């Protein structure tokens, strides 16, 4: 099968996108995403849905300062881009 210039260009672009995505996923910077509170697990831990997947994530603030409710939209920070270092940093105010 003969490759066209479009096929070659798409292959190069896909390779570049792969390398960029991989480099970003390993970068050591904080990143923040939005999620929705699904449940309060107690002990300052919450079940949060992010992009359709549920995670148990602690809050950075004690429950004496803030308690999140089911369906609250919250900000989750991943310290140094590490999934195991995620914590809730606050509530999204609409």
Task: List its traits.
94 residues; alpha+beta; 38% strand
Low-confidence stretches: none
Classification by helices and strands: alpha+beta
Spatial strand sequence of the major β-sheet: 3-2-1-4-5
- The portion of residues forming beta strands comes to 35-45%
Rg from alpha-carbon coordinates: 19 Å
State the end-to-end CA separation. Answer: 54 Å
Tell me, rounded to a whole number, the average pLDDT.
91
Please give the number of β-strands.
Answer: 5
Order of helices and strands: HEEEEE
Overview of this protein structure:
With 94 residues, the protein is α+β, with helices and mostly antiparallel strands. Helix content is 23%, strand content 38%. It has one helix spanning 5-26; strands at 31-42, 45-50, 53-58, 73-78, 86-91. Strands 3-2-1-4-5 form a 5-stranded antiparallel sheet, with no helix packed on it. Strand 1 (31-42) and strand 2 form a beta hairpin. The radius of gyration is 19 Å and the shape is elongated.
